Amino acid sequence: MKRGIQYLLKGLTILLPLVVTIALVHWFLVTIESWLRPIWETILGTKYYFPGLAFLSFIVLAIIIGFSARWNFINKLWELPGNIMHRMPVLRSLYGTITDVFDLMSGKSFSDESVVLVTLPGADVKLIGIVTKKPGQKDDRLSAMLDEDHIAVFLPMSYNVGGYMLIVPRESVEKLDMSPADAMQLTISGGLGKNRQFPVNED
C-alpha cells in the first residue's frame, strides 16, 4: 500500500505539471479563437475560415505592434488604452499588477545586474532578490525615497505569489549573472526546479 502511494505521488508529479501547462495553453488558444474568429468569418466567410487562423493573426498582430512601437508617437498610441485603465479606480490596481508581473518576468526596466544575493544584516543568511529601484530615477516616488547608498530589492517567496520589498545598503548585495525570470523561477520553486548553474560575479 505504501509503495502504491509512492508510485501515485510520483505519477502525479509527472502528470500534473503537464496537465496544468496544457490546460493554460488550451485556455489561451480558445480565448484568442473565440475573440478573433467572428471577425475573420465576417471578412472571409465561414467557408474560407480554417482553425488556427485567429491565433496566427494574433501572433502577426503582436509582431506588428512590437515593430511599430519603435517609433515614439506610435508607441504612445498603443499605450493609450493602458493609460486610461491606470486612471480607472478598479482596473488601475488589476492592470497595474498584471503589467508589473510581465515586466518583472521579462526583465523590462531592470538593469543588466538586477538579480542579487542579499545578505541580511547581522547574519550569514543570503536571499535571492531582484533590484527594482535605484536612486536618481526621474518621476519615480520610490526612487526619490532612496539615498545614494541604498537600493530597493524585491524578495520573492517560495511556492507563493508574493514577497517582500526591502530597502538595503548597496554593500549588502552581490550581483548574480541571472535574468529576473530565472531568479523568479528558482525562488518560487524553492530551488527544486531544474535550473542551470549560474556564476557569481566577483566585484
TrEMBL record:
The keyword GTP-binding does not apply. It comes from the Bacteria. The chain crosses the membrane at residues 7-28, 48-69. It holds the Pfam family DUF502. Keywords: Membrane, Transmembrane, Transmembrane helix. PANTHER family: COV-LIKE PROTEIN 1 (PTHR31876), PROTEIN LIKE COV 2 (PTHR31876:SF26). This is DUF502 domain-containing protein. It comes from Pseudidiomarina marina.
